[in-house]
Amino acid sequence: MTVEQRKITITINGLRHSVTVEPRMLLSDMLRHELGLTGTHVGCEHGVCGACTILLDGRSARSCLTLAIQADGAEIETVEGQGTAEALGRVQQAFRDHHALQCGFCTPGFIMTITDILRNHALSGDDEIREALSGNICRCTGYEHIVAAVRELLREKDSRP
Amino acid sequence: MKPAVFDYVRAESVAHAAEVLAGAGGDGKVIAGGQSLMPMMNFRLVKPSVLVDINAIAGLDRVELVGSRIRVGALVRHFMTARDPLIAQRAPVVTAAMKHVAHLTVRNRGTFCGSVCHADPAAEMPMMTVMLDGEIHAVSTRGKRMIPINEFFAGSLVTSLEPDEVVTAIDLATMPPNMGFGFHEFARRHGDYALAAVAVLMRRENGRPRDVRIAVMGLGEMPSRIPTAETVIEGNELSDLTIARAVESLRAAVSPNTDLHASADYRRHLAGALAKRAIGDAWLRAREAEPA
Ligand SMILES: Cc1cc2nc3c(=O)[nH]c(=O)nc-3n(C[C@H](O)[C@H](O)[C@H](O)COP(=O)(O)OP(=O)(O)OC[C@H]3O[C@@H](n4cnc5c(N)ncnc54)[C@H](O)[C@@H]3O)c2cc1C
Ligand code: FES
Ligand code: FES
After folding, report:
1. Considering chain A, what is the average pLDDT of its residues?
2. Chain A residues whose beta carbon lies within 8 Å of the beta carbon of residue B189
3. Half-sphere exposure (CA, 13 Å, Cβ side) for A147?
4. Looking at ligand 2, which atom is closest to the CA of residue A62?
5. Among A135, A83, A77, which Cα is nearest to A110's?
6. Inter-chain touch B190–A134, beta carbons under 8 Å
7. How many whole angstroms separate alpha carbon B78 and alpha carbon B82?
8. How far A32 CA lies from chain B's nearest CA (Å)?
9. Is A53 exposed, middle or buried (0-12, 13-18, 19+ CB in 10 A)?
10. pLDDT at A2 over 60
11. Average pLDDT across chain B, whole number
């Protein structure tokens, strides 16, 4: 069997990248190892923990269950696109305000899931918030604070014209 | 890199996908949502030599009414199935079951057809396909064929699909408007695979249940109907005693596993409790929907 290297073009956080990958390279590994975008964390590598969640063409996806080559031509958003230490993104700021991060391992995955929720889902009430977050696991058990952050973000979104 | 080496082809059409699979000598695999296949490949439980990605094929992401059946295309994702108005109207038991399927992010990618092809005994979509007399449309370079669901599942994670066949869609029966339904599931965390689930359909005619269907999942090697329990209810007055007898025959008919999540005994206990609730809901809805 030929172990072929393929050249792919991906837009990540608005910047175009050309990367050479083996078909079996996971998107999570490409982001971290080839591009140095280590904000995308890797926990379980079988879709359960949510740490590796990114946005693929505007919707959240597990980067550990996506091949880099599948993202050829796609638009990817990672936590690096949310903001900087000096100018936090809106979701990041809400996490900070509500003490929603402790060790921070799960945080990038939560932030990307929440970005999908804010863009694509109308949620009402804590039960729906909790359900929407149920695919992300926080080993520091920061859930109450994370729910509080989302509650504020949704309130803010609803009050915008 | 976790998966073993493979070649990757982005299929441009169903015919193209079928050609690539035919050339793979039985060793090719289709990838749809990848939400079950990629974990298996990451663990190297599956090592295809060629991976055929069908995500770029146009026209496979539709839910449509074809005659009296609902056709679900191979790229209809879980989130689309869950909120599809046609399914909600003509097969509401599916909408009810979809509420229990996976989490937001997995639902963005996973597909109805992929789940049926994966044939996990604890997955909702295979169970719904059993419940609604599903037919699987498969295409290979040898032609098209339609596989009735009772010839499809062959065991846990095993189906009668040939390795060179691509599933293009699955057809489901629609429910008559006066058909009541019940769906109950128990999972340890919302969206996780169920320990057990029971779904029930029935109509009410002259005060008695008719066209009773009872399906279970997570309680054996594959999702299945439980004809012995259906017979207990069919055409008989739905008293507490009838329900108790149906629940008893259901518990006797299932053969659950013991694994690290639950014992066989506990699963059998759940089966009974869930069946009782699902029968109750189906009857209530059937009464509300009975023509005057
Ligand atoms: C954390 C997590 C939780 C989950 N929870 C649930 C749950 O509660 N309930 C549930 O039902 N599922 C659950 N799933 C599984 C999920 O629903 C999967 O998406 C689904 O089982 C498979 O669909 P897929 O499109 O991702 O298929 P893939 O992973 O792409 O493929 C699965 C199998 O089907 C074959 N296949 C797929 N499409 C075709 C086709 N068109 N033609 C021929 N073969 C095909 C593939 O070759 C492979 O063998 C969960 C998954 C994860 C990661
Ligand atoms: S690393 Fe991808 S879901 Fe856990
Ligand atoms: S903050 Fe530590 S894992 Fe969530």
Report:
1. 95
2. 134
3. 15
4. 2
5. A135
6. yes
7. 6
8. 12
9. buried
10. no
11. 96
Long-range pairs of B85-92 with CB within 8 A, sequence gap ≥ 24: B87/B63, B90/B65, B90/B174, B90/B175, B91/B128, B91/B132, B91/B172, B91/B173, B91/B174, B91/B175, B92/B175, B92/B181
Q: How far apart are CA B179 and CA B282, in angstroms?
A: 8
Please give the model's pTM, rounded to 2 decimal places.
0.97
Contacts 24+ apart (CB under 8 A), B149-157: B152/B116, B153/B119, B153/B126, B153/B222, B153/B223, B154/B222, B155/B119, B155/B221, B155/B222, B156/B119, B156/B120, B156/B121, B156/B221, B156/B222, B157/B118, B157/B119, B157/B120
Tokens representing A34 are 């080839």
Whether residues B38 and A66 touch (CB distance < 8 A) is answered with yes
Q: What is the pLDDT of residues B139-162, one digit of tens each?
A: 999 999 999 999 999 999 999 999
Residue A62 in tokens = 């597990």
Please tell me the predicted confidence (pLDDT) of residue A1.
Answer: 52
Tokens representing B240 are 């507490």
Which residue among B6, B31, B118 has the greatest number of ligand 1 atoms within 8 angstroms of its CB, and so is best to mutate? B118
CA B137, CA B29: separation in Å to the nearest integer? 17
Q: What does the alpha-carbon distance between residue B88 and residue B67 come to, in Å, rounded to a whole number?
A: 17
The length of chain B in residues reads 292
How close A88 gets to chain B, by Cα (Å)?
24
**What gap in Å lies between CA B254 and CA B260, rounded to an integer?**
19
Q: Chain B within 8 Å of A59 (Cβ-Cβ)? A: yes
DSSP string for residues in B115-162: HHHHT-TT-HHHHHHHHTT-EEEEEETTEEEEEEGGGTEEETTEES--
